[in-house]
Amino acid sequence: MALSLRRRLVWQLMALSAGLAIVLYLAVRIGAGEASEATMDAILGAAAQGIAEEMRSVEGGVEIDLPPGTFSMLAAMGEERIFYRVDVGGETLTGYEDLPLPDQPPTALTPLFYTVPFRDVQLRVAAVMRSIRVDGRAEKAMVLLGQTREGQEAVAADLGNRAAALGLAVFLAAIPLSLFVARGLILPVDRLAEAVGRRGPRDLRPVRHPAPVELKPFVTALNKFIGRLRVTLSQTETFIAEAAHHIRTPLTVMRNEAELALRQSNEEATRARLRGLIRSADDAARSVGQLLDHATVLYRAEQEEWAQVDLALMTKAVAGRLEAAAGLKDITFVLDIDPTMPVDGDAVLLEAALRNILDNAVKYSPVETLVEISARVDAGMARVVVKDRGRGLADAVPDRLKQRFLRGGNVSDVAGSGLGLTIVEEAAVAMGGNFSLTQREGGGACATLLLPLARS
To answer: Is the pLDDT of residue 354 over 90?
Structure first.
């Protein structure tokens, strides 16, 4: 799963802060080591030059005066060990004879520095060379002055630890700063998303919300998508309306012509074929109607254009329109309906749901029976209950019967598309309610449509 932009930005800022903290530590650690080494080299070289300058030619040899100030100056740098060696004419006059010489001897009083291991320590040595007259001859005098560097390493380590503490403090301070910066950078995206989210399902205007330059390509692409969606929805709505007209009208004409031919025909075989044609036209009209109803329900459910609808009045109206079909089977509607039941919903969805519930009750009920229709307010909900004495559910699972194109095994001889209960279920869920179907005690089915009452 991809990280969110906010988390990714925070992690990148924290990684950058950690990298900067490490660079700070290394820079201070290396810089402190180089600075302290350069300082101590300068002092060590000055001390070696001081010893060399104090060498004097005397009768019978060379006099070397080791000035106390020289060693005091070196001791001031810390508790270091000091080694020296003075060679004149290739012979060691004083000091440590085993103190290593440089690979290349110095050529002047300018110090030559090198580091060598000596007596289990690392020694930093300054070597200087001068010319001195001994018994009337010019001889080369070389002074080696070495010093251990434990103090220098301790100073560099202390500065490095301080740099590490400073880097850690920078990293810890970067955590809330990264969160703050990430929030500020993502804020325009959140505001754009909020502006788009506040729109209703029918608001397909181009997005005009102010956005940073970096989001302009996204806003442009979003507006193009909204434009394509607006055209597609318009075409869908037009198609549904035209399909309803261009499919139902020919079926109606065909049925009327078949009925006319049936009345005019005297041949029994022809009359039988015409009756079959009429039944097929009725079945096709029913299936087409339910397919179109289903498409309408799906389309309008997406729009969510709710308004206040009186469910009690609509239940009476739908029952009144189906009384003629019920009368053909001598089925009587028994109504128990409250005076008013306002709900927030879509009138087309509600009518489709009620029509399919009552149509199923009439279709699967035997002749000369009652269909009880109750519409009452119950615990803050509008409840419509339709009970019949039809074939019932048999062994079918109620939730399975709500799936598209699935029908019970006990109704295979009755024409149907398997979409009626699906339409009711999807309409109920779209408006925040629910639909249930149960077996009625004593035979038959009980269909219940439950919707929340309108907010006052």
So the answer is: yes
